[in-house]
Structure formats: structure tokens, C-alpha cells
Amino acid sequence: FHDHALMIIFLICFLVLYALFLTLTTKLTNTNISDAQEMETVWTILPAIILVFIALPSLRILYMTDEVNDPSLTIKSIGHQWYWTYEYTDYGGLIFNSYMLPPLFLEPGDLRLLDVDNRVVLPIEAPIRMMITSQDVLHSWAVPTLGLKTDAIPGRLNQTTFTATRPGVYYGQCSEICGAN
Predict the structure, then answer these.
(1) Which CATH superfamily is domain 73-174 in?
(2) Among 21, 60, 105, 162, which residue's Cβ finds the most Cβ atoms within 10 Å?
(3) Which one has a higher pLDDT value, 177 or 51?
């Protein structure tokens, strides 16, 4: 899509630069161009056609990447001030809270402001659906190494899908300023 949109942008820029070059280098002998209704119609309709050529591939990519039809696991994440609640909805409603570890409880090798007392365990190479909401204020559920960031809004259920491709510990973080920690 990037290459497609960039090619259209290059063509538009080349056309505009060519028109500017012709305007600056030729003598203005044709005065009938200021009354050209056909020309005004063309430069009104042509941008709309260009926007359609950009929008159609964008919408196709958007719908292809949006939905996982049959996820292996669904997890509901509820943001609270200073902690997150996770619910494995596929396994009888397994619910637990995940609090950030205070600096006094950190062991050597633990990461300050990232390590938690209860980690979410995820399968690798399996599509996972994450349902994200908030209990109190705006939060932002983010796992930068997975390329995920989704807003948690009170009264709204947002959804994101992802697949962990390698085993390891992925650190998530709240990307909104929501409390003392």
C-alpha cells in the first residue's frame, strides 16, 4: 500500500511541478483558459478519482488485517488505576489482577516499572484476541515488542488480535498518565 500511495503522490507532484514550470517559462498568450468550464470540472473531479484509487486498496488491507475469525484464546483486560485485571474467558472465567512490583520487592534483573506480580501467559504461534476496556479512567494497553497499543476507555470494549511468534517475556506498559506509579 505504501508503494501504491507513494507512486500516486509522485505523479501528482510531477504534474504540479510541470504545470508550474510551464507557467513560469511560457508567455501567457492564451487568455481563454481563465473561462474554461471544462478545465474546472476536470480539476474538481480528478482529485476525487485519485482519492478513490488510494482508498480502495487501503480499505482492502484494513479489512484483511482487522479480524481473526477463529482465535485460539480470548483474554479480557480491564484497566484500573495502578493495575490491570485479566480474564481468560475461554477457561471458565479465570480472573486475576496484575499489580506492578514496588521498587522494594524487585530482585536483581527485574525491570523497574515493568515487572508485575502476576504475568499473563500466552501460547506462541496461535492467534489471540485481546478485549480491552477500563473501569475508571482512560488507559492505554501497550506491548511495544508485539507492536500493540490499544486504548482502554470506560464503557467501551476495544479489540485487538495478535500472534506471539517467539517464546519469552513481553513487557507491557500503560501509556497514559493515570496515577502515582
Answers:
(1) Cupredoxins -  blue copper proteins (2.60.40.420)
(2) 162
(3) 51
